[in-house]
Amino acid sequence: MKRLTCLVVMGLAILLALGGSASANVIVLxxxxxxxxxxxGYAFIQDFYxxxxxxxxxxxxxxxxxxxxNAQAICLNTPGVVCSNTSRxxxxxxxxxxxxxxxxxxxxxxxxxxxxxxxxxxFNYTAENVAGSVSVYTGLNGTGTLLATLDLPTTxxxxxxxxxxxxxxxxxPIGVAFSGTAESVAFAGVENQIVFDDxxxxxxxxxxxxxxxxxxLLGSGLVGLAGLxxxxxx
Length: 234
Known about the structure:
Layout: H1 6-18, E1 27-29, E2 65-67, E3 71-75, E4 99-103, E5 108-126, E6 132-137, E7 146-152, H2 161-164, E8 172-188, E9 195-201, H3 212-233
Antiparallel strand pairs: 1-9, 2-5, 3-4, 5-8, 5-9, 6-7, 6-8
């Protein structure tokens, strides 16, 4: 299947960043509380979001979402605390500033949703030196049919090093749309060179949003672009 066009991806990212659509079934994986303490090491996520525990013995909400063995929770820097080379830089949800998803072995890590999900999802990421990608599959652990692949370009490092002490800073939002039902997502790149956070299903918490009329016009335009991109990919 051909990759989503850059124009469509940019449009989706803008719409998601501005607010997306409201939903009663929003699920956000913020990767907080996986590490037992803060500052901390890098606990393996394991079944933290799947009714089990992390390698630190912590447990989270049971969303039926599991991660492959190499998925870890990186400790993020905050003012006065340096525990890695990565930080949110004071941006985004303050309650999601201490932990994120990364991997230290292999070329990718898998997120598995056994019950499946559709339409799309959003997330934040940072990749200062090496680009990455996200791929969506119909089966677990990257099996089945490839529904979508999105290239993730490198991101600029613009945070004040005297405050956050991190080159991988800040994070940037992006969205992925696809047709079909997915059971797994591959978060790919070079080990220890890309970090993900706030994986969001259903909607994105929107601060701030434009006037309703402006948002409606923007959304209508992006729907048209998405349709054009889909027809061309066919």
